[in-house]
Write a structure and sequence with these properties.
- The chain is α/β, with parallel strands linked by helices.
- It has a domain of 109 residues: Response regulator (Rossmann fold, 3-Layer(aba) Sandwich), CATH 3.40.50.
- The chain is built from 5 helices and 5 strands, in the order E-H-E-H-E-H-E-H-E-H.
- The radius of gyration is 14 Å and the shape is globular.
Amino acid sequence: MISVNYNQNEPYILMADDDEDDTLFMIAAFKAVGLIGATKRVNNGVELIVLLKDIISHNLILPALIILDLNMPQKNGKDVLKIIKSNNGLKQIPIIIYSTSDTKSDILESYKLGCNGYIVKPSNYSEIEVIAGKIKKFFIDTTSNTAENLSEKTFTLDL
C-alpha cells in the first residue's frame, strides 16, 4: 500500500513520474518558490490510481494538482488521465502533463483526454524553477481546495 502524509490545511501537488531525478528537481523547484512539503510522489500510474482510491475511501483532501508523466511503466499517463477524467469524484482535479515528449500527437491527445496543461520537460534547473513558479501562481495560489466538491466516492480501477 502506498502511504502519503496529508496536512489537511495545505493544498498539495501529487506527482506521478518514474524518473526520480525529474521528480526531485521539480520538488526542489517547488520548495524554491515556497511550496515546502507540498509535493507527494508516486512512481507510476498504477500507484497513482491506488493512492487516489485510498484518498477517496478515507475521505481525505484531494490534491490541488496532479503532475503526470506520459511514459511510465505499468500504466502510462494517457491511460491514467482517461481514468481520472472519467471519475466524478476526481475529474475536477487539474492535471498537467509533464513529459519529455514534444510530439504534436501526444500534446493534442493529452488535451483531448482532459489535461489542463502540457509541459515539455526542460533541460536545465533554472527553467524548472520558472515552471514551478508559474504552476504555484496559477494552480495553487489562485485555486481553492477540491475536496469540498467530492460528491461521488465510487471508484473502479480496471488494470
